[in-house]
From TrEMBL:
<protein>
    <submittedName>
        <fullName>Cation:proton antiporter</fullName>
    </submittedName>
</protein>
<dbReference type="GO" id="GO:0015385">
    <property type="term" value="F:sodium:proton antiporter activity"/>
</dbReference>
<comment type="similarity">
    <text>Belongs to the CPA3 antiporters (TC 2.A.63) subunit F family.</text>
</comment>
<feature type="transmembrane region" description="Helical">
    <location>
        <begin position="34"/>
        <end position="54"/>
    </location>
</feature>
<feature type="transmembrane region" description="Helical">
    <location>
        <begin position="61"/>
        <end position="83"/>
    </location>
</feature>
<dbReference type="GO" id="GO:0005886">
    <property type="term" value="C:plasma membrane"/>
</dbReference>
<keyword id="KW-1003">Cell membrane</keyword>
<keyword id="KW-1133">Transmembrane helix</keyword>
<keyword id="KW-0812">Transmembrane</keyword>
<keyword id="KW-0472">Membrane</keyword>
<keyword id="KW-0813">Transport</keyword>
<dbReference type="Pfam" id="PF04066">
    <property type="entry name" value="MrpF_PhaF"/>
</dbReference>
<dbReference type="InterPro" id="IPR007208">
    <property type="entry name" value="MrpF/PhaF-like"/>
</dbReference>
Amino acid sequence: MAGAVLVAVAALLTVSAAAAIVRTIRGPSLLDRVLAIDVLLSVVSAALITEMAVNGHQNNLVLVVVICLVGFIGSVTVARFVIDRRPHEH
């Protein structure tokens, strides 16, 4: 049973990563690409967390936290950049 769940999780993470990569390449706008990269970072974090749960260790915990922080800071930075580029309405 645990093997089937692991296979299902791996399949879902693979499909999610593939969809995020496609959106990163084809995304018509900068915000689409940033959102896709944020999703890809979340998928990588989920894969690392799944690997830690399966193998019963916490060696990658710092890496997961760093990946999440990079995704968050990157998204906030791009959002501020996009807001600053919009024409101001008076």
